[in-house]
Structures are given as C-alpha cells and as structure tokens.
C-alpha cells in the first residue's frame, strides 16, 4: 500500500513537471493515431527522445484519458501496476521504446491513451488515439418460405452478418447483377461488446425465371467483406404423363379401324 501511495505521488509530481516544463531535454515521440483490429494485438507506438546524452528511464505509466487509475506502470524496471493481463510494454527494458501493447484488442479498448515517462534528465507525456475496427462475419442468407415456393407469390429474403464495426451496409443483387438495395430494409443491432449485427430483408414476387439472388456485406468504407448467394427452390409443377400401355392399345384400335 505504501509503495502504491509513493507511486501516486511520483505520478503527480510528473504531471506537475510536465505541465510546467517549457525547455525539455526529454520528449516523447508517439504516433498520434492507431487503428487496431478486433481480436488482434494493437501496438501504441511511443519512444523517448533526448536532446543530450542517453537517458535512463525511471518510470513509465500508461493511462486511459479521464481515468484516475493507470492501466500499466513500470518503475525502475519492475511492474507496479497492471490493470489487465492484456496490457504490457511492447519492449520491456528498452531505454528508448516505451510502446504500449494491447493484446486481443476489444471494441471497448477504443479511446485515448496517455503515456507519461520520467527519466533522469526530465519528464514528458503524450496522447495516442486508438480506433478499433471489427470485420463482419460471412453473411448468411435464408428465405420465407424456405422451400416449395409457388410462382408469383410473395417471398421475403434475409441476409444477416454479425460482429462488425463501424456500422456497415448490406447490398442486394438479382440474377443479372441489378442492385435492389433500395427495396430492402436493413436493421442495426448493437452487441454487448459494442460491435454491430446487420440484418437485412428484401421482399419480392417470386419468379422461376429469376431464381438466384445475392447479398453483399460492405464495411463503413464501402469495401466488400463477404457475400452469399441463394437459389430459390420452387415447387415442382405436376405434369400428366401418358400411360404407355394405353397408348399402345389406341394404336392397335386405329389400325383395325383403318383395315
């Protein structure tokens, strides 16, 4: 407990010094914006630069902007705070690289991060923005009714894709590639982990002349991430077949009449 109180006092001192210092011997060079991918590791790049001799890093801390408790702190080479096992320094022990590693990135990791560093020659801090994108699942198509579709009856097609972010869109295409998206209705459902599920439906009059339809899932930038195709199963038409035995008897009768 005492060590943690000492750590907080050091952090407060660092914040004060960073705010008051105008002539810095030490500065942080951080990438301003990082685009992470859901489920993958995200690297928030940050390094220490010195205008003089090589410096010794005394403490590194990483925070979520607006939070009172740090996510990760290293003091004199030892970890004194780690809020989540997914958080760590990318290159522990480095005298320059203080990049922050977020493993198995979640949507809730998106936000602003602040790095603070204290060295034997000065202190500095910098803010990095982490944006998280998530790829949609491959779309799944279905229809109501599912089978035995009757010619010229109303049918509804469905196309579902889950787990993406930011909000994307669903496009519909007919057998000749005609875009029918304007006639479709797409709903967006937010998941508990702040991703998005897309559900789209398209209602039409069934025609066996145009039995194939396709849906395409696009991300927020309009890039296709997946597609699916559905071939409508129409009810077979009943056809009256000629009985071959009756046909043969009729031929014989005709021959007798002619003779």
Automatic annotation (TrEMBL):
<dbReference type="GO" id="GO:0007166">
    <property type="term" value="P:cell surface receptor signaling pathway"/>
</dbReference>
<keyword id="KW-0732">Signal</keyword>
<dbReference type="InterPro" id="IPR051713">
    <property type="entry name" value="T-cell_Activation_Regulation"/>
</dbReference>
<keyword id="KW-1133">Transmembrane helix</keyword>
<dbReference type="InterPro" id="IPR013162">
    <property type="entry name" value="CD80_C2-set"/>
</dbReference>
<dbReference type="GO" id="GO:0009897">
    <property type="term" value="C:external side of plasma membrane"/>
</dbReference>
<keyword id="KW-0812">Transmembrane</keyword>
<dbReference type="GO" id="GO:0031295">
    <property type="term" value="P:T cell costimulation"/>
</dbReference>
<dbReference type="Pfam" id="PF07686">
    <property type="entry name" value="V-set"/>
</dbReference>
<dbReference type="InterPro" id="IPR013783">
    <property type="entry name" value="Ig-like_fold"/>
</dbReference>
<keyword id="KW-0325">Glycoprotein</keyword>
<dbReference type="GO" id="GO:0006955">
    <property type="term" value="P:immune response"/>
</dbReference>
<dbReference type="InterPro" id="IPR013106">
    <property type="entry name" value="Ig_V-set"/>
</dbReference>
<dbReference type="InterPro" id="IPR007110">
    <property type="entry name" value="Ig-like_dom"/>
</dbReference>
<dbReference type="GO" id="GO:0042102">
    <property type="term" value="P:positive regulation of T cell proliferation"/>
</dbReference>
<keyword id="KW-0393">Immunoglobulin domain</keyword>
<dbReference type="GO" id="GO:0042130">
    <property type="term" value="P:negative regulation of T cell proliferation"/>
</dbReference>
<keyword id="KW-0675">Receptor</keyword>
<feature type="domain" description="Ig-like">
    <location>
        <begin position="39"/>
        <end position="129"/>
    </location>
</feature>
<dbReference type="Pfam" id="PF08205">
    <property type="entry name" value="C2-set_2"/>
</dbReference>
<keyword id="KW-1003">Cell membrane</keyword>
<dbReference type="GO" id="GO:0071222">
    <property type="term" value="P:cellular response to lipopolysaccharide"/>
</dbReference>
<protein>
    <recommendedName>
        <fullName>Ig-like domain-containing protein</fullName>
    </recommendedName>
</protein>
<dbReference type="InterPro" id="IPR036179">
    <property type="entry name" value="Ig-like_dom_sf"/>
</dbReference>
<dbReference type="InterPro" id="IPR003599">
    <property type="entry name" value="Ig_sub"/>
</dbReference>
<feature type="domain" description="Ig-like">
    <location>
        <begin position="139"/>
        <end position="231"/>
    </location>
</feature>
<keyword id="KW-1015">Disulfide bond</keyword>
<feature type="signal peptide">
    <location>
        <begin position="1"/>
        <end position="19"/>
    </location>
</feature>
<keyword id="KW-0472">Membrane</keyword>
